[in-house]
Amino acid sequence: MDAAPTGGNRTDDAASRMRSAFAALPALLARHEAMDPEVMDLRADLAIACAESGELESALQQVGELVKDAERSVGPEHELTARMRAARDTVFRVVGLTEA
Known about the structure:
The chain is an all-alpha fold. Helix content is 77%, strand content 0%. The protein has one domain.
């Protein structure tokens, strides 16, 4: 079996995930507070998908806000904050940055 090409397909998949996350966010916000872990995780997914689809400035801005929001909401040592930092680190790797 031949391996599937990864170049355009990976970007297309990321763009599809970005559109899906963006479309799901308003309904999720209608059911949950903005700092709810489910909302924060979707925002993290959205930021990563943005980075992977080439929306680098948006992705960097989003993860910066995510980490600040989590730190304000639940504190710097909380597991949610750790997940948001992990999302930031993922975006940084995609973008080509090495440090937060």
